[in-house]
Amino acid sequence: MVGLTSDNHPRTAFRYVTDGTATKGHIDVLCAAFPKEKLEHIQPVLKTGHGALQRVRTQLDSSAACLDNLLIFSDMDEQVAGRGVVDTIADIPKKLIDSDDQTLPYRVLKQHVMNGTLDQADASSLPGWETDKFKFLPDISRAWNMRPDKKWYVFFEGDTYVVWDTVFRLLEHFNPDIPHYFGSPSPGRDGTWFANGGPGLILSRAAVQRLVQYDYTWRSMKYHGSKLAEKHWHETLVNCCGDSILGWALWEEGVKLEGLWPMFNPHPPHGVPFSELYWCQPVLSMHKPHEVDVEALWRWEWRAMNMEHPLLYRDLAISFYDSFQSPSIRENWDNADWDSFEPPEFQGAHASLEHCQEACTKHHLCMQWTYHLKKCWFVRSFRLGQAKEPHVEDDRKHEKWEAKDERYMAGWDTVKINKWIKDRPCTEVQWVKPSTERIF
Question: How does the protein associate with the membrane (predicted)?
Answer without folding.
Answer: Single-pass type II membrane protein
